[in-house]
Design brief:
Elements: H1 8-45, E1 51-65, E2 68-81, E3 87-90, E4 93-99, E5 102-109, E6 112-114, E7 118-132, H2 135-146, E8 149-164, E9 167-168, E10 172-184, E11 195-196, E12 198-200
């Protein structure tokens, strides 16, 4: 007489498959809904990138010996939030000073909040502390010093998020590039020549 075979494992397996498909479907729908919500909010706010510019500054305590650089830099950096509906929250921003594409100084801006339609000016005190330069960069910097001016680049990088009402976005990476800033040394009668910066978010 043939033996009866149980169909219970097949039923259980079918139920598990249906539950898995239902879970995936619900998850997919939630992802779409969240994405659409973010898109609608983004289109409603229409955020604009902040504007940055170097307003002025000076180089002090300059010393270059055996390709080792020591100096201090005092910059005035202006940041403007053009948005009328949102404020910007910044994480810590790292700053580097470059000459001929080689890093010669650094510093940081601590986390801060930028209100809407607001201009904020930072006084940045940066420094070079026994920075070892390549022979080529050292030679070019000595030549620049003899003319009492030097062309520098300033780079900033950090994270930002936007806020409108109670809604806050996730953090986005931001990079600011200020190039061809003609800087005067402290014994010169004039300070820095200002420069506009490019912002990439």
């Amino acid at each position: 007489m043939p033996e009866a075979r149980s169909q219970i494992p097949t039923v259980v397996g079918s139920r598990r498959s249906m539950l898995a498909k239902s879970f995936i479907t619900i998850l997919f729908i939630l992802i779409i809904m969240i994405g659409m919500t973010i898109l609608v909010i983004w289109l409603t706010i229409r955020p604009k990138k902040p504007f940055y510019s170097v307003r002025g500054g000076s180089i002090h305590d300059y010393s270059l010996s055996k390709d080792n650089l020591n100096a201090t830099y005092s910059f005035f950096l202006k940041s403007y939030n053009p948005n009328t509906r949102m404020s910007i929250y910044y994480g810590k921003m790292e700053i580097t000073i470059l000459f001929n594409h080689e890093t010669i100084g650094s510093g940081v801006i601590e986390p801060w909040h930028h209100p809407k339609r607001n201009a904020t000016i930072f006084k940045l005190d940066l420094a070079s502390r026994n920075v070892k330069l390549s022979e080529t960069v050292s030679r070019d910097l000595k030549l620049a010093k003899s003319t009492n001016e030097v062309v520098l680049d300033m780079k900033l990088k950090g994270r930002v998020k936007i806020k409108k009402g109670v809604w806050k976005s996730r953090y986005f990476r931001m990079q600011v590039s200020c190039v061809d800033v003609v800087a005067k040394f402290s014994n010169s009668s004039k300070g820095f020549q200002g420069a506009l910066c490019d912002v990439d978010i």
